[in-house]
Design goal:
The complex is a heterodimer of chains A (about 325) and B (about 300). Chain A has 14 helices and 2 strands, in the order ααααββαααααααααα. Chain A has about 325 residues and is mainly alpha-helical. Chain A has a domain of about 190 residues: MetI-like fold (Orthogonal Bundle). In chain A, a hairpin with a 4-residue loop joins β1 and β2. Chain A is globular. The mean pLDDT of chain A is about 85. The mean pLDDT of chain B is about 85. Chain B has about 300 residues and is mainly alpha-helical. In chain B, α3 packs antiparallel against α4 and α3 packs across α10. Helix content of chain B is about 65%, strand content about 5%. Chain B is built from 13 helices and 5 strands. In chain B, β4 and β5 form a beta hairpin. Classes of the chains: A mainly alpha (about 325), B mainly alpha (about 300). Chains A and B meet through α1, α6, α7, α12 and α13 of A and α5, α10, α11, α12 and α13 of B.
Amino acid sequence: MKYLGWRLLHGVGLLALLSLLSFMLSQVASGDFYSQLRNDPRISPETVAALRAQAGIDRPFPIRYAAWIVAVSRGDFGYSLAYHRPVAPLLEERIGATLILTGAATLTTWLIAVPLGIWSAARRGKWGDRVSTVAVSLVLAVPDLVLAIALLVLSVQTGWLPAGGKISRGYAQMGSIQQLRDVAWHMVLPVTVLVAGSTPVLIRHTRASILEVMEAPFAMSARAQGIPRRRLLYRHLLPAALNPLISLLGLSLGSLLSASLLVEIVTGWPGLGPLFLEAVMARDFAVVLAVVMLSAAFLFIGNLVADLLLYRFDPRIRTVD
Amino acid sequence: MNRRWRIGLTSIFIALVVAPLLLAGFVAPYPYAEQHREYPYAPPAAVRFVKARPFVEVGGRWCEVRLLPGNGRLFGVAAPCVIFLSGTDGNGRDVFSRLLYGGRISLMTGLLSAFLSLALGLAAGVVAGYFGGWPDWLLMRGGELVMALPWLYLLLATRALLPLHISAVEAFVWPAAIIGAVGWVRPARLIRGVVLSGKERGFVLAARGFGAGHAYLIRRHLLPLTGSVVVTQATVLIPLYMLAEMSLSFLGLGVEEPMPSWGNMLTEASHYHALILHRWLLAPGVAAIPVLLGFLLLADILLDGRHD
């Protein structure tokens, strides 16, 4: 498919440009990983200079960029100065933790929001719809950050849920089923926060897109022909209303790596979020760059998947070709 | 209720919840940096009414709360007594006062950065939409590049360009400037669309036919068309940017101590000891909810109006 190839090329170009730009930004940023050492009177400037030379960050920009590209093509994304190891294995552990969290949250969000949105649209203007619309606005007004801290307070006070982290003490001694249950138990809080943050938006979009096709002439004629309500809703209206929902699906797939950053930091979940923040604070640019490039690539892939799904499920856009 | 009423009521609601923040210097009983070292982590004051006069308990004594005690504040208690409606933090600073001052800073950051984003978006959108060609291509591809990044990284990277030690005023202006500068793409795209369609409308073509110049066409005919998009986007962006400021300051990269903001006050609330013992430190987060709700409701009503 010519379109797909074109899109891929475009994406690779975008990512390459982005890496160049990020690299330049890291150049003009004030300070590097060894700036802190310079303030330490016990460490001589020569030592710092030697360390910088060893790490290769005193080399000119084009050479460093080329070295980084080579590292990326080798698949290790450079060397983390803070962790003294290549970036790739470091990221692998963290990506797993983040994806479990965001994957569970995204799945839950879609399972809750789409039926609720349809339900709300089918009862437009009635009590159920009004109550859910108000509830959606209220939940939307509670910042993730505040909800996370409030739930932490609740779980500390009541002991119902663990207060942050991913595993309990004594995790290593548990059997594998117990381990699974332990992690799931720790996931409840962050996943709740993520779901509460993204569900209202999705409910709204589902409701709006169903309402829009309800007004369409084909829906009216279907109704006039006496097609049962339920069948009309699920067989006729839902497929026609799918277009914006698929775009949103692409967006939530694309933000799988970056959506939980703040929640992870608040709840102490050992995912990409805390790693990224630490790397930014310590100016550990190899890690920063790798995280940024990965999440940008995810965003791009998410959008691409959405476009392909649209092409598959919405015959209306195929006529453009 | 018709739309006009709903807009009016929501605006009144916003004005009511925002007024105490804007008047923080009057409503708050203490300045934001004043430390009461002998009262670290004091719990919220218990206020009792005796014969319709409010009293507050401090260390076993009851002191009367006076309206307009004469120090230029709305209410207060006589000298040896103290009043902490929402408790104090670890430095003995009144959380209620800091919450009001901090809310003012968070709100101002939201307004300032929304204004900046809209100004940049308007400029970029008009140039891209009106002139087309390579400026359009360049601006839209640049926008894609910005949108391809998770916004927090953009914020952090831009923050990293600045020196570490900055004055109090700069500490407030910079987060606003960064948040605003990073968010120009969405308004720019919307405004570009409005300008693109407006360019082909009859009265614009007619004005051009009569020999109107670019500057005149943009100023008199195209900019007024973007008005409703700009207003709607403002109501969408303000709560979004207040949240951005809260996140950034929470992470220690935005507004800095001793200046309060809702974000940096929540940093202390998330510490483990606060979760167990000092729940009142969560107050700024609770205070944020009605303000955000007001702006979100207004944005909803305005966005809804587009389809009518």
